[in-house]
Amino acid sequence: MHTQTHLKRRKMPRGQSMVEFALAFPIFLLIVFAIFEFGRLVFTYATVFTASREAARYGATVNTATDCEGMEAAANNIAIFTDVSDIMIYYDKGNTPLQTIAQTPDPVTAISGYNLSECGELSDDELVLGDRIIILVSSPFSPILGPLFGIDQEFTIFNLVSRTLVKKVEWEIP
What we know:
The chain is an alpha+beta fold. It has one domain (15-164). It is 44% helix and 17% strand. The radius of gyration is 27 Å and the shape is elongated.
Protein backbone atom coordinates (compact mmCIF):
# COMPACT_ATOMS: atom_id res chain seq x y z
CA MET A 1 0.00 0.00 0.00
CA HIS A 2 2.85 2.32 0.72
CA THR A 3 4.29 1.90 -2.77
CA GLN A 4 0.98 2.73 -4.43
CA THR A 5 0.65 6.09 -2.64
CA HIS A 6 4.22 6.92 -3.48
CA LEU A 7 3.60 6.22 -7.18
CA LYS A 8 0.39 8.25 -7.20
CA ARG A 9 2.15 11.20 -5.63
CA ARG A 10 4.82 11.19 -8.33
CA LYS A 11 2.33 11.08 -11.18
CA MET A 12 -0.04 13.82 -10.05
CA PRO A 13 2.11 17.01 -10.23
CA ARG A 14 3.57 16.41 -13.70
CA GLY A 15 3.46 20.01 -14.89
CA GLN A 16 4.02 21.66 -11.54
CA SER A 17 7.80 21.93 -11.90
CA MET A 18 7.42 23.48 -15.37
CA VAL A 19 4.98 26.08 -14.06
CA GLU A 20 7.24 26.90 -11.11
CA PHE A 21 10.21 27.23 -13.44
CA ALA A 22 8.23 29.47 -15.80
CA LEU A 23 7.28 31.73 -12.88
CA ALA A 24 10.68 31.82 -11.16
CA PHE A 25 13.02 32.04 -14.17
CA PRO A 26 12.14 35.63 -15.23
CA ILE A 27 12.64 36.83 -11.66
CA PHE A 28 15.95 35.00 -11.50
CA LEU A 29 17.05 36.56 -14.80
CA LEU A 30 16.05 40.02 -13.60
CA ILE A 31 18.16 39.59 -10.47
CA VAL A 32 21.16 38.35 -12.47
CA PHE A 33 20.92 41.24 -14.95
CA ALA A 34 20.49 43.76 -12.11
CA ILE A 35 23.68 42.44 -10.50
CA PHE A 36 25.45 42.71 -13.85
CA GLU A 37 24.21 46.28 -14.35
CA PHE A 38 25.25 47.32 -10.84
CA GLY A 39 28.68 45.82 -11.50
CA ARG A 40 28.99 47.86 -14.71
CA LEU A 41 28.06 51.01 -12.81
CA VAL A 42 30.62 50.39 -10.06
CA PHE A 43 33.29 49.50 -12.63
CA THR A 44 32.63 52.72 -14.58
CA TYR A 45 32.74 54.81 -11.40
CA ALA A 46 35.98 53.17 -10.26
CA THR A 47 37.55 53.70 -13.67
CA VAL A 48 36.61 57.41 -13.78
CA PHE A 49 37.86 57.86 -10.21
CA THR A 50 41.19 56.14 -10.90
CA ALA A 51 41.70 57.85 -14.27
CA SER A 52 41.26 61.31 -12.75
CA ARG A 53 43.64 60.54 -9.90
CA GLU A 54 46.25 59.15 -12.27
CA ALA A 55 46.05 62.21 -14.55
CA ALA A 56 46.39 64.56 -11.56
CA ARG A 57 49.32 62.57 -10.20
CA TYR A 58 51.05 62.75 -13.56
CA GLY A 59 50.43 66.49 -13.90
CA ALA A 60 51.53 67.43 -10.39
CA THR A 61 55.12 66.39 -10.88
CA VAL A 62 57.98 68.75 -11.64
CA ASN A 63 58.37 68.37 -15.39
CA THR A 64 54.84 67.53 -16.52
CA ALA A 65 52.66 70.31 -15.11
CA THR A 66 51.81 71.65 -18.58
CA ASP A 67 51.88 68.34 -20.48
CA CYS A 68 48.17 68.18 -21.38
CA GLU A 69 48.55 65.25 -23.75
CA GLY A 70 50.52 63.32 -21.15
CA MET A 71 47.82 63.82 -18.50
CA GLU A 72 45.12 62.72 -20.93
CA ALA A 73 47.19 59.70 -21.91
CA ALA A 74 47.69 58.80 -18.24
CA ALA A 75 43.93 58.88 -17.73
CA ASN A 76 43.18 56.92 -20.89
CA ASN A 77 45.78 54.26 -20.03
CA ILE A 78 43.78 53.41 -16.91
CA ALA A 79 40.39 53.45 -18.62
CA ILE A 80 40.49 50.28 -20.67
CA PHE A 81 36.78 49.52 -21.11
CA THR A 82 35.37 52.94 -20.26
CA ASP A 83 35.16 56.10 -22.36
CA VAL A 84 36.92 58.85 -20.42
CA SER A 85 37.58 61.07 -23.41
CA ASP A 86 36.06 64.09 -21.64
CA ILE A 87 39.02 65.26 -19.52
CA MET A 88 39.16 68.88 -18.37
CA ILE A 89 42.39 70.27 -16.92
CA TYR A 90 42.58 73.58 -15.02
CA TYR A 91 45.02 75.48 -12.81
CA ASP A 92 44.27 77.75 -9.86
CA LYS A 93 46.02 79.40 -6.92
CA GLY A 94 44.36 77.12 -4.37
CA ASN A 95 41.27 79.21 -3.63
CA THR A 96 38.58 77.60 -5.80
CA PRO A 97 35.85 75.87 -3.71
CA LEU A 98 36.19 72.42 -5.25
CA GLN A 99 33.91 70.76 -2.68
CA THR A 100 31.06 73.03 -3.78
CA ILE A 101 31.74 72.31 -7.45
CA ALA A 102 31.90 68.55 -6.86
CA GLN A 103 28.53 68.53 -5.09
CA THR A 104 26.64 70.17 -7.96
CA PRO A 105 24.67 67.96 -10.37
CA ASP A 106 26.78 69.20 -13.30
CA PRO A 107 30.37 70.00 -12.27
CA VAL A 108 31.36 70.82 -15.88
CA THR A 109 29.01 73.80 -15.93
CA ALA A 110 29.84 74.76 -12.33
CA ILE A 111 33.59 74.82 -12.86
CA SER A 112 33.28 76.96 -15.98
CA GLY A 113 31.77 79.70 -13.81
CA TYR A 114 35.12 80.26 -12.13
CA ASN A 115 37.94 82.12 -13.82
CA LEU A 116 40.40 79.22 -14.03
CA SER A 117 43.31 78.84 -16.42
CA GLU A 118 42.89 75.89 -18.75
CA CYS A 119 45.66 73.51 -19.69
CA GLY A 120 47.79 75.02 -22.44
CA GLU A 121 47.15 78.64 -21.43
CA LEU A 122 50.04 78.84 -18.96
CA SER A 123 53.71 78.09 -19.41
CA ASP A 124 55.95 76.25 -16.94
CA ASP A 125 57.38 79.56 -15.75
CA GLU A 126 53.94 80.95 -14.83
CA LEU A 127 53.15 78.00 -12.55
CA VAL A 128 54.67 78.26 -9.09
CA LEU A 129 54.94 76.13 -5.99
CA GLY A 130 51.51 75.98 -4.33
CA ASP A 131 49.40 76.31 -7.48
CA ARG A 132 46.90 73.52 -7.97
CA ILE A 133 46.12 71.36 -10.93
CA ILE A 134 42.43 70.40 -11.19
CA ILE A 135 41.33 67.41 -13.24
CA LEU A 136 37.67 66.75 -14.05
CA VAL A 137 37.01 63.42 -15.76
CA SER A 138 33.55 62.38 -16.88
CA SER A 139 32.14 59.35 -18.62
CA PRO A 140 28.65 58.67 -19.96
CA PHE A 141 26.81 55.68 -18.53
CA SER A 142 23.86 54.19 -20.34
CA PRO A 143 22.05 51.51 -18.33
CA ILE A 144 21.05 48.44 -20.31
CA LEU A 145 18.12 47.69 -17.99
CA GLY A 146 17.27 51.36 -17.49
CA PRO A 147 13.76 51.27 -18.96
CA LEU A 148 12.80 48.45 -16.59
CA PHE A 149 13.70 50.59 -13.58
CA GLY A 150 12.46 53.93 -14.88
CA ILE A 151 15.84 55.27 -16.08
CA ASP A 152 15.17 56.27 -19.66
CA GLN A 153 18.35 58.12 -20.53
CA GLU A 154 22.07 57.92 -19.97
CA PHE A 155 23.73 59.95 -17.25
CA THR A 156 27.29 61.10 -16.66
CA ILE A 157 29.65 59.96 -13.95
CA PHE A 158 32.08 62.68 -12.81
CA ASN A 159 35.15 62.85 -10.61
CA LEU A 160 37.00 66.01 -9.64
CA VAL A 161 40.56 65.77 -8.30
CA SER A 162 43.12 68.40 -7.41
CA ARG A 163 46.81 68.19 -6.59
CA THR A 164 49.23 70.86 -5.46
CA LEU A 165 52.03 71.44 -7.93
CA VAL A 166 55.49 70.70 -6.66
CA LYS A 167 57.77 72.82 -8.83
CA LYS A 168 60.82 73.76 -6.81
CA VAL A 169 61.48 73.50 -3.12
CA GLU A 170 64.53 75.22 -1.69
CA TRP A 171 66.15 73.96 1.50
CA GLU A 172 68.38 76.10 3.62
CA ILE A 173 71.07 74.32 5.53
CA PRO A 174 71.42 75.82 9.02
